[in-house]
Every structure is written in structure tokens, then in C-alpha cells.
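go over my protein:
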Amino acid sequence: MKTRNLVIIFAVAFLFPGCVIWSFYPFYSENDLFKNEILTGTWQEDDSTQWKFQHPEIQKDGQKFIDSTSYILSLNNGRGDESEFSVHLFKLKDTYFLDFYLENLDTSCGENRDKDIELWSLHVMPVHTIAKLTIEKDKLKIKWFDKGWLEDAIKEKQIKISHENDGNNLLLTAKTKELQKLIVKHSGDTLAFQKGIEVTLIKAN
């Protein structure tokens, strides 16, 4: 299933059923990360949606530096809708994967809670989603694993993995090593992506 507005799909992931696999834990470990500039820059979807990847500035031991092992993704659909994600690129068995995690969602409580926080955001928990990345010269192809495929495979006992399912939503609760076994084993299975979200990005001039 292709989409024209990933901003909305991710931002309300826990309010409406989606087509991607959600995980409580990340699909990558720190040892999987490496310095790179593969995603850096601005990319254009075939509509007005703009994807801007840049490395975050982090502070450690009182010093600021650029973390070139991770990315901040700013999505802008050209109609005023913006959202920000933490994205980690990693490679397993000669295949690139992207772990997406929604940033800038304030669900804090107590004294530090934003007084202007909206009620809906208190009911949304950021999750990790996983996609396979194919890199061409000036083009990125991103394919998310299909949630429906995984649900069927679990139901038919073809796949065993720790999860919670309330009848409407499936959330993986397995740790990173178990998650990686799943995505590596099925990264070449066309059925695993058949109805998942697919996006092609062209490098902007």
C-alpha cells in the first residue's frame, strides 16, 4: 500500500490501525550503527512531501558534537503538516534497514508536564517501525514490513515471536536480537512487503 502522507500515519499510529509492524524495542543495537552520509540531505516523494535527513547534535561530557551514526528526519507534506523522527540506518546480512521512532511527542506527567498538552497525545506511545532500504544512485526505495502478513503468520503459527495483540493492534515486545532474526529471515520474502507501505524518494537538487 503506497501512501501520500506518512506524517499522519506515524503520528496517529496508536489511534488508528496501521499497515506497519510496531515494536516496543528498537530493531537495532548500538553495535549495528556506523558513521555514514547515505541519507543526508533533502529528498522528494512523487507528491509534495519532503524528507529532510540530518545528523543530530548531541552533548556528551560537556561537549557538543555531531552524531553521524543516526539521523533526524523532518517530514513536511507541503500543507503545513510536519513531524520529526529519529532514524537509524543499519545493515544485517548485506541488507540495509531503517528503524523509525517518533520524536517530539510530549507525554510527560507531573511538574514538567506542558500545560498546553493535548489530551490525544497522552494516549499515544511512540513505537519503532522497521523498513527495508534499497539504495540507487539518487534514489531511495523504502519498504515497510506488512503488519497483516505478520499477523497471519503468527495466527497460523508460522512465526513465533513475543507480542501483544488486543484484537485491533499488534505490538511486538521481543528484544532486539529476536527482532533482527525475524527481519533478516524474511527480508527477501515478497509476501512480507506485499501490502506494506512503500515510498520512493528522489534526491532534491
Summary: The radius of gyration is 17 Å. The first strand starts at residue 22 and ends at 23. Confidence is low (pLDDT under 50) at residues 1-17.
